[in-house]
Amino acid sequence: MTEPDLSCTIAGVRFPLCLMNASGALCVTREELEALGRSRAGAIVTKSMTLEFRKGNPEPRYYPFGGGSINSMGLPNLGYQAYAELIPALKAFKKPVIASVAGLAEDDFPEIARTISKAGPDLIEVNLSCPNIPGKPQIGYDFEASERLIRKVRAVVDRPMGVKLPPYFDPAHHAAMADVLKRAPVDFLSLINSVGNALVIDPETETVVIKPKGGFGGLGGSVIKAVALANVRAFWKAFAGRIPIIGVGGVASGTDVFEHLLAGASAVQVGTALVEEGTGVFDRLAGELRDVLKKKGYPSSTAAVGKLKEL
Ligand code: ERO
């Protein structure tokens, strides 16, 4: 059998490999973004950007443990103007550049999106799901605010745009967000952000493991894979596969990527495993995914998308 094709197309944009970093993972500084450019990653995703430069929350604010990680970074980023200047240079790496847009207030999002769109990223990912800004709830859990915000951003961008959603834990909430997206359409979905406001405890020292918010933070890594897969599957079904999905959550092996594809993801982002392993993770995952697809007889990653069997 010939080698499986691991490329994919999302919203008309071709990705040479269906694997990339999750926003937040090793993608804040110019150096980190260029390292992603030089790596095997199929795209470069920026850290979510705000109007102003942010140092983020006090440290320790990231803690890996067996099975995952907890973070409360607090949106450390260079500020959107810096990313607007960087994006043209990043395009020299000949892979898609995805600008992740956030904000501390609703009106920040369109302001950032307007300028960043002009800088020419291939896609814009609007982050509706940051769990770590004290006093600011995740927008994705407020369906009216989400719809308002999607409309406002859509009106000022001329690039394909998608939304990064928080995990939902009830079919009523999947349906409510799907209804929002039917009224205010987007070009792709990134699912899921970290599982917000989790608490990891070190029983030895009897303390929390990160400093912000009394130890509460976003859970990532293998422990959230099942939640991520359920959200990918729920939204894939809600739109009968018509909106491309980028799966995020718990990807640490080629088999994890394969499961995301089966659930309905066209591509996959890697967070905790990238932070823990460095950019070499994309070579490893690409090799493992190729082997899984070969063994299963799939000619391409695209051929596996949504092929999950139900009983
Ligand atoms: O704290 C953060 O910077 C952060 N952490 C996450 O797990 N998800 C986010 O979306 C985010 C900030 C936007």
Can you walk through the features of this model?
The structure is a single chain. This protein is α/β, with parallel strands linked by helices. The chain has a single domain (8-56, 75-195, 224-304), classed as TIM Barrel, CATH 3.20.20. It is 33% helix and 19% strand. It is built from nine helices and 16 strands. It has helices at residues 30-38, 80-90, 108-118, 143-154, 171-183, 225-238, 254-263, 272-277, 281-296, and strands at 8-10, 13-15, 19-21, 44-45, 62-65, 68-71, 97-101, 123-127, 161-165, 188-191, 195-199, 201-202, 207-208, 216-220, 245-248, 267-270. The model has no long low-confidence stretch (mean pLDDT 98). Bound molecules: ligand ERO.
Q: Indicate the overall shape.
A: globular
Spatial strand order of the main sheet: 3-16-15-10-9-8-7-4
The total count of strands amounts to: 16
Task: Please trace the helix and strand order, writing H or E for each element.
Answer: EEEHEEEHEHEHEHEEEEEHEHEHH
CATH homologous superfamily title: Aldolase class I
Give the ligands present. ligand ERO
CATH architecture group name: Alpha-Beta Barrel
CATH domain topology:
TIM Barrel
The CATH class, by name, is Alpha Beta
Return the domain count: 1
Low-confidence stretches: none
Question: Layout of SSEs?
Answer:
Blueprint: E1 8-10, E2 13-15, E3 19-21, H1 30-38, E4 44-45, E5 62-65, E6 68-71, H2 80-90, E7 97-101, H3 108-118, E8 123-127, H4 143-154, E9 161-165, H5 171-183, E10 188-191, E11 195-199, E12 201-202, E13 207-208, E14 216-220, H6 225-238, E15 245-248, H7 254-263, E16 267-270, H8 272-277, H9 281-296
Parallel strand pairs: 3-16, 4-7, 7-8, 8-9, 9-10, 10-15, 15-16
Antiparallel strand pairs: 1-2, 5-6, 6-14, 11-14, 12-13
This protein binds ligand ERO.
